Amino acid sequence: MDTARRKWVPYFFLSPYLLFYLVLGLIPIIFSFYVSLTSWDGIGGKTFVGLANYKFLFNPDSYFFQSVGNTLFFIVLTLPLQIIFGLAIASLLYSKFVKWKAFFQLINFLPYIVTPVAVGLMFNLLFDWQAGFVNKVLIHFGWIDEGIYWLGDPVYARMVIVLMLFWKGFGYTMIFFLAGLANIPKDLNEAAQVDGASGLRNFWSITLPLLKPVMTFIVITGIIGGFQLLEEPMLLLGGSGMGSSVAVIGGPERCCLTTVWNMYDTAYGSTTRYGLGAAIAYGLCIIIAIFSFIGVRLQRGDQE
User: How far is CA 254 from CA 20, 89, 163, in A?
Assistant: First the structure.
């Protein structure tokens, strides 16, 4: 085989992936950007409107910034809890005092692999104001006289979502912290103990600084994953047994409307405005790109 043909051999083996990406990746991306510049209901013809859809994102009626604020609210409250509890449980499981480590690792990680649909419906049944398990327990012990309308009040609804996301995600952080703890040389901890350092001092001065790259990775992936939040709040606030007051998209006063939920409802809900939905998607893409850039810069700084 001559040299010219050899150059094309790698591209021949890459061609299935390149074709797959072209059909299902690149072309839809280009087409969706074109749709974001039009007014289209998915059935009739497209009307080119330029940047009108992007300008409308700054209008309160688009709910874009409200949905971004709600999403950031859930991330800010949930991610630190996941990190703190994940690190605490990982430290306990990594210690020599705990037996059956594999069993406890599995139990704590199982919520993360539960499908988002199942998680949303499960918490919907737990916090249903008429027949929910939580209200029944509180009434049984006499702590409340009547059922609390958890999903009909903005404050309570947000509390339930934060609890749901925390329960689902702290096992994910635990696994990464366990991997990070396993990569810390034991000689450093042993040397610190010989020098008289206490366990707490050892943790703050050695363990935490060496876990900084893992912490950075968890924070960045947590933020990116948080901005993709959709199924859990949608099923939680749209499941069975919901009253008319929470039938509003995003829950009461749209307090739980996430960015992806807003995009989904705009493009495929009652309005079917594909152009505005695509503009919301690209606005979300810019936000995620900013956090990804910050994460790359932080990781490079840690490596240097």
Answer: 38, 35, 18
- pTM over cut 0.90: no
The two three-digit tokens of residue 93, written as one number: 């499981």
Contacts 24+ apart (CB under 8 A), 115-120: 115/231, 116/230, 116/231, 116/232, 116/235, 117/231, 117/235, 119/164, 119/168, 119/231, 119/232, 119/235, 120/164, 120/231, 120/232, 120/233, 120/234, 120/235, 120/236, 120/239
Domains of the chain (ranges; CATH) run 54-303 (1.10.3720.10)
| Strand, coil or helix: 2 | coil
Q: Kindly state the helix (H) or strand (E) to which residue 48 belongs, with its residue range.
A: strand 47-48
34, 85, 119, 253, 263 from 269: Cα distances, Å: 21, 37, 22, 18, 9
pLDDT in tens, 68-118: 999 999 999 999 999 999 999 998 888 877 888 888 888 999 999 998 889
Task: Output the six-digit token pair for 274.
Answer: 């594909």
Chain centre distance of CA 77 = 12
Under DSSP, the state recorded for 214 is H
Which residue, chain included where needed, has tokens 């936000």?
A: 287
Q: Encode 5-33 in three state secondary structure.
A: HHHHHHHHHHHHHHHHHHHHHHHHHHHHH
Q: Are 262 and 237 in contact (CB under 8 A)?
A: no
